[in-house]
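Re: weekly structure request thread

Next one in the queue (257 aa):
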Amino acid sequence: MNVEPLFPNLEALQLWRVAWRFIPFIPLFLSPKTTVIGIRFSDSDPYTDDATINSTVTAFPTLCPNLQNITIYPLPRDPAIAVAVSGMLLASNLSALRSIHVDPLLTEEAREAVFNLPDLRELSVVVERDASLPSLVLPSLTDLTITYDHASDWLRVFRGAMLENVVAFTFYSGSEQISGFLEEFEKVALAAFAQNELSRFRLHTSCTWKPNYSSLLRFTQLKDLVVEFSYGGVCSSKVDDDVITNLARTMPKLEIL
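Done, posted below.
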């Protein structure tokens, strides 16, 4: 039975800290005019069953045939949910999508489609060890967020990438193998995109680390620089006078540090 939407003219639905038990009611708010769905589930609310999540997520393309922005997180790392979210993206009007932020690992078919959307502007995805990864061919992308879930090769997603317009990168890592990341990122930046245009670089990791900040000095247009990691009880960041002086000299546009 078809149910009329509560808000037939709703263009954007943004729900933050949503309880899992509220999931079945989400479709009631959506309409054919809805182009933006942003859902952040509560971290503290008891988790519901996968079937409820899957049936709700897979209904989005039918209820909202012209979705442009999709944000759904955090979701359990469950294969069935990954299939449901991947199917939802594949069933959407891919040519209309401009922003995708999802946190389950997508299926190979979904990754192939999403990683080659010519008009996509923002992308947030999870990369796992041994996952098959097509090259990122996203000429319109400006903002990329990647969560590495214990990946052994941090930057393999950039091999063969076309990201000439990316100006903002955010990385989250669950890997303990992070030493040398900034050096490798510098090499990737020189090959894959216009590194002198980069305005935001953020890296968050839970491991103890001694970053080599000199690898960031090429990014002279940075306005937002965040490097966050565990200090293991003893400061190991090696930030001295030279690091601060060099950052100040080469990054005069910094607004967030």
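The helical segments are 26-29, 50-58, 60-63, 79-91, 108-114, 181-192, 241-250. Residues 7-114 form one domain.
Next request, please.
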